[in-house]
Every structure is written in structure tokens, then in C-alpha cells.
């Protein structure tokens, strides 16, 4: 069986990789919203809009900007927490899972003793 501390270390590295995926997703979200905002601003610059159309476009711009700021803040907070957890798991995994690892080591020692006894009896 794999060392439990090693498994925790690997899980921490996997969690850090997932954080990188979250950053990529956020960049794609930002790019899509930026393009939509550019299109809305281009429409706002035309004079053929009615007051209602202009109000809806401005409202959409404000809503998207608010949503973007909120999502960005939430993502930064989530990534910070996840990366701190990942680093603790990756760097200190062998300390975080010592009890089960100690049991496994004890079990391995017992197994080694049994094998050693069997070898010495077979040689007799």
C-alpha cells in the first residue's frame, strides 16, 4: 500500500493544479465579458438608440461590471484558501497522516517478521 503521507502530498499537488484551472476559467470569463462590454459600448455610441434601449444597455454594462468584480473577488478568495490548503497538504502530508501510516508501518514490520521466520524455518 502507498505511504499515506505521500498520498496526501499528491492530493495537495492535484489541488494546486485545479486552482490553475480555475484561473484559466476566470480569464475566459473575463474575455467573454470584455467583448460583450465592447459591443455594448459601440452600440451606446450610436445616436439611433431610444432612451429605453440606451438605459437597458447601460444597465447591462453596470450589471456585468458588478458581476465581474464579485466573481473576481470570490475567485481570488477561493484560490487563496485552496492554494494554502494545497501547500499544507503537499508540504506536510507526511505529518498530516502519521497515525494510519504508523499502523501500516507496524503491519509491514509484522509481515517482515513473519517472512523472516518462514525463511529461517525453510532453511533449517
Summarize, please.
This protein is mostly helical and 124 residues long. 91% of the residues lie in helices and 0% in strands.
Order of helices and strands: HHH
Q: What is the count of DSSP helices, taking H or I runs of 4+ residues?
A: 3
| Unreliable segments of 5+ consecutive residues | 101-108
Measured distance between first and last alpha carbons? 32 Å
Residue share in β-strands: under 5%
Please report the total strand number as a whole number: 0
Return the average pLDDT rounded to an integer: 78
- Rg, alpha carbons: 29 Å
The global form is rod-shaped
What does the largest sheet look like?
none
Could you estimate the helical fraction of the residues in percent? Answer: over 70%
* Helix/strand structural class: mainly alpha
What does this 3D model show about the protein?
- There is one protein chain.
- It is rod-shaped, with a radius of gyration of 29 Å.
- By secondary structure, the chain is mostly helical.
- The chain contains 3 helices and no strands.
- The model is unreliable at about 100-110 (pLDDT under 50).
- Helices cover about 90% and strands about 0% of the residues.
Question: What's the helix and strand layout?
Answer:
Blueprint: H1 4-44, H2 51-96, H3 98-123
Helix pairs in contact: 1-2
Tags for this model:
124 residues; mainly alpha; 3 helices; 91% helix; 0% strand; rod-shaped
Amino acid at each position: 500500500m502507498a505511504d499515506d503521507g505521500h498520498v496526501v502530498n499528491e492530493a495537495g499537488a492535484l489541488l494546486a493544479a485545479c486552482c490553475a484551472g480555475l484561473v484559466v476559467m476566470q480569464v475566459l470569463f473575463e474575455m467573454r465579458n470584455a467583448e460583450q462590454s465592447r459591443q455594448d459600448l459601440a452600440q451606446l455610441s450610436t445616436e439611433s438608440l431610444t432612451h429605453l434601449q440606451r438605459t437597458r444597455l447601460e444597465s447591462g454594462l453596470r450589471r456585468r461590471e458588478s458581476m465581474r468584480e464579485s466573481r473576481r473577488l470570490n475567485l481570488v478568495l477561493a484560490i487563496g484558501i485552496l492554494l494554502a490548503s494545497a501547500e499544507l497538504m503537499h508540504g506536510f502530508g507526511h505529518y498530516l497522516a502519521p497515525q494510519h501510516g504508523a499502523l501500516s508501518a507496524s503491519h509491514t514490520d509484522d509481515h517482515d517478521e513473519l517472512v523472516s521466520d518462514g525463511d529461517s524455518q525453510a532453511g533449517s
